[in-house]
Amino acid sequence: MLGLNKKDTxxxxxxxxxxxxxxxxxxxxxxxxxxxxxxxxxxxxxQRFVIFGIFAIGFNLLFGLTGYLSFGHAAxxxxxxxxxxxxxxxxxxxxxxxxxxxxxxxxxxxxxxxYVSLRRSGIYFxxxxxxxxxxxxxLAYSVLTPITNGETGLQLALDDPRILGVSQVDGSIxxxxxxxxxxxxxxxxxxxxxxxTFNAGYYLCAVIMILAFYVSVRIFRSxxxxxxxxVKSNQQRMNYTGLNSKPYTFAAFVISGMxxxxxxxxxxxxxxxxxxxxxxxxxxGEVVLMTILGGAGTLFGPVLGAGFIKYFENIFSKINDNIxxxxxxxxxxxxxxxxxxxxxxxxxxxxxxxxxxxxxLVVIFLPGGIMxxxxxxxxxxxxxxxxxxxxxxxxxxxxxxx
Amino acid sequence: MVGLMDxxxxxxxxxxxxxxxxxLIALGLTLIFGTLGVVNFAHGALxxxxxxxxxxxxxxxxxxxxxxxxxxxxxxxxxxKVQTPYVEAWFGxxxxxxxxxxxxxxxxxxxxxIMVAVxxxxxxxxxxxxxxxxxxxxxxxxFGLAIVxxxxxxxxxxxNPIPTPAPPAFAGSFDFGAxxxxxPGSIIYPYWRLVYFAFAIGIIGVVFAFLRYxxxxxxxxxxxADRETVGFLGINIDRRFTIMFAIAAVVxxxxxxxxxxxxxxxxxxxxxxxxxxxxxxVVGGMGSLAGAVLAGFLLGILESFxxxxxxxxxxxxxxxxxxxxxxIIVLLTRPxxxxxxxxxxxx
Lengths: 402, 347
Fold this sequence. Notes:
Chain A has 402 residues and is mainly alpha-helical. Chain A is 65% helix and 5% strand. In chain A, helix 8 packs across helix 9 and helix 11 crosses helix 12. Chain B has one domain (4-63, 105-333): ABC transporter involved in vitamin B12 uptake, BtuC (Orthogonal Bundle), CATH 1.10.3470. Helices cover 68% and strands 7% of the residues of chain B.
């Protein structure tokens, strides 16, 4: 279907299903139950899932395929965000020009950065991209303040021209919308104890993520994707066979920068403001974490990693000692105290500690990320259930080891 | 009106203390890279750990017990609570107070065993398993470690910077203006920064002398040049490299200890310095110790020149980006860096 083979088609359909039914899937617990705090089906968080999903898919097109580790990808997202807000200030509150323009501007910026950075590879490439990102970050704070509004961040104002739309409606800034449907419009469905929210903004992001995912699948399976994989496995040998690998990596870099710009544009469409902190190198580090955690070089891993990090960031930050005591209320008090004492550093504000530890464990023991883990589990399960108890000896385990 | 000559001189001095920190961190990074071939993103965290050694010792020495002095009252009319540090009770008030005031230099002794232990545990426990893995994996795992270390420090010490004073003997400033014949007061420079610069030069000298004039250093240099051959000669090169890792950790840690009075330590100072130190290493030339030191001082001074009012008026924002700009230019025109050796990470 759509030029995909059978396996990819089923993966693609799973992604479509998951994103379309996310309001149901992410809200498994009734509103009134204790577990409702683990629900993630509210618009703000779901939007972040898919937007960072797009960002990670784009990063994976560069790092996963070519092995070039960019430590400055957040710069493209930031530049895209600024472009998006400017479109909303100057043209119209319709999100289409904003999203389109953020992709274009991020693409142009990545052409500039890529042209310079891709002259080197390995750690030099990482440091060059890092240098560019830090430069944009510093400049956004200082000299470029007329464009970026410095520390305050770029915001919409009542007296913006918006030449294709209206400056203000009844004394307030009109909402971001697409063909008249406001991004913040939501429709609630209540079924028994459950309540599901369907948000227009989320569905716009979801549709775009599905498109972005589809494009990435096509790139992975194309001859172009194959070239990129060749760059990763042995660039020197590729050069010796007479192929110039530069244009391929360059194209991958620009495409990946445009994905980041798209993510930035969508962020603006959901919440029309942009700040320089989006370009800081910690933000670039975050997308690296997402991609590695999910599984670099796999199709679905980055989306999974983005969802994983954003979900647990949200949940872990919400848990506090009181909630822990509630959970352990069945245990003797001293045991509960001890457990809370041990867990305390890892929750609430300690989320980054947990993330750092999980990330280290993944890099050390599971370089393929969550996808690799899932593959190992499924191989293990297959081995367990396919072999009869008598032949449960050396042969199947050897197979699994492959 | 400040003349041009003394303004230039002032910027050079201003650049020296930051440059010293860059040079020390970059030296450690290069030592690790040159010996173990590992790109250590957690090196900034070691710098930060050193600074927090100073904070910790300062806190320990200031531990006090409370007595109630009935003869005096506080402003509410209650008996005054008097805090007496234990060291003052043990060694007498004068010596005790001096010990507390000198806590930062004393932290050097305190930090060395800690940094050695941290370095050894890090190398044996983690880095060892990453020799054969790609550089990207090394970057990633040490990046993760850096996050973990800084979050641990944040958990124990909070997110706010903690002021750590230098000994009062170095509290004032030195008037270079009067000394060099410019107008008095035109170039004043805090004593502690001079101490920091001298300290950095001392450490760099010790490390270079150690590598050049001891047998151990000779073997390490041989191992950096050709690890396999040294191994064939029956020398346990891995163990020496582990020790070099610990030494690099100590260098970063001591740089942090002495830096604590200049900038109050906070949990993310390591990351801030790390990014710049990497740039310094690349500009100096990957694997070249002298290059790292030279580039550290050079970029520190360049940065402070770029912050001069005249320069900023000419090129706004240049002070923010000068280091990165230089790095980009150097990487593109002289990929090996200023003093890089042939064949080290050339691609």
